Amino acid sequence: MTVVDSDIRGEREESARKVYADGGITVTKLGEHIGAGIDGVRLGGDVATEQIEAIRTALAVNKVVVFSGQEHLDDASQYAFASLLGEPTAPHPTVTSRGDQLLTIEGAANSWHSDVTFVDRIPKASLLRPIVLPTYGGATTWASTVAAYEQLPTPLRSLVDDLWATHSNLYDYVSQKEPSGGIDVAQKEDHYAEFTSTEYETLHPVVRVHPETGERSLLLGHFAKEFRGLKAAEFADLYQLLQARIIKLENTFRWNWSYGDLVIWDNRATQHYGIADFGSQKRQLHRVTLAGDVPVDIHGQSSQVLSGDASHYSSVERSRRLDVFAA
Predict the structure, then answer these.
(1) Which is deepest, 4, 11, 122, 207, by most CB within 10 Å?
(2) Three-state DSSP class for 99?
């Protein structure tokens, strides 16, 4: 980060603190590039407008925000609170057997990804609340794709700024033949059949511009399967190079779940990884996702649908630039 970048970030955080004060919330940074805790608000469908704006700002600045002590939340109040932050999507484009509002997350998706990047209208944020926790393990880790981009040396930036990747839901996570993440192999195969019941492919820019902040981030994760114009072997090598920069420990934030927690992450600026280190114990969380925009690259070109219609899953949000990030 240059001195100029550091000055801009300092001014932005100072402006954000004024928004937090107006909303009556306290925001405590938990990592330099990602992660913050929020206190001073009781979550539900009646959160005041000033507090909602403060939470939106804290999320944009910190990429992941954690609320603790929210034991009163149930599915209805989690959904009602989410609706104040945006328009909830359907639970999933293809997985329809787990409810019609919230998606039940069973086990842990022990692979780095951003949610639902195989459709054109990638969700802007997700809200996750634990329902059943193992006696040990089961944490979730997030990585800042904004910090990863900002840290790229000039030659790599020149390469990725004009790079596009195809994302597909035909991601094979059942090839591992032993139980993991609290789900046995048979269950994983059944879930995969539903997950891929409709095929989706979308061409996304590897560098997208965040509509609320103007920041650039790397759009990759395990749904990415090829780079336009490159061979398969070249994709594999370049993907691993970029992913290694995204998940660099200094760019990550890890949360060990407790009952009463609710975590929101900016899906346009992060990847996440549910850690399957709890053996055969049960781990269950409920997730609400919020409708997002269609990504655009640094030249203003939008993502392109290659197969699959996601209009039943989500509307397309018309995002606005947050005051704290105004040019």
Answers:
(1) 122
(2) coil
Q: Nearest CA to 210 among 113, 287, 125, 153?
A: 125
What is the C-alpha to C-alpha distance for residues 265 and 57, in angstroms, rounded to an integer? 12
CA separation (Å) from 199 to 100, 186, 192, 205? 20, 21, 12, 20
Give the single-character DSSP code of 323. Answer: G
3-state secondary structure of 164: strand
Q: Summarize the confidence of residues 21-30 as an average pLDDT.
A: 97
Would you give the DSSP letter of residue 63?
Answer: S
Could you read off the pLDDT of 197-234 as tens digits, one per residue? 788 999 999 999 999 999 999 999 999 999 999 999 99
pLDDT at 181: 47
Alpha-carbon gap, residue 59 to 36, rounded angstroms? 8
Rg (CA), the chain: 19
DSSP 74-89: -HHHHHHHHHHHSPBP
The 10 Å Cβ neighbour count of residue 290 is: 20
- The residue-averaged pLDDT of 46-69 equals 98
**CA angle centred on 157, ends 155 and 159, rounded to 5°:** 75
- Return d(Cα 154, Cα 242) in angstroms, integer: 14
Can you give the pLDDT at residue 33?
Answer: 97
Coarse DSSP helix, strand, coil percentages of the chain, rounded to the nearest 5 percent: 30, 25, 50
* Nearest Cα residue to 88 out of 59, 124, 117: 124
Query: Rounded to the nearest 10 degrees, what angle do helices 75-85 and 49-62 cross at?
Result: 80
* Residue 67 CA from chain centroid, whole number: 17
User: In whole angstroms, what is the distance from residue 162 CA to residue 141 CA?
Assistant: 29
Structure tokens at 298: 């640094």
CB 108 within 8 A of CB 114: no
Q: Which helix (H) or strand (E) holds 21?
A: helix 3-23
Q: First and final CA of the chain: distance in angstroms?
A: 19
To 10 degrees, what angle do helices 3-23 and 49-62 make? 160
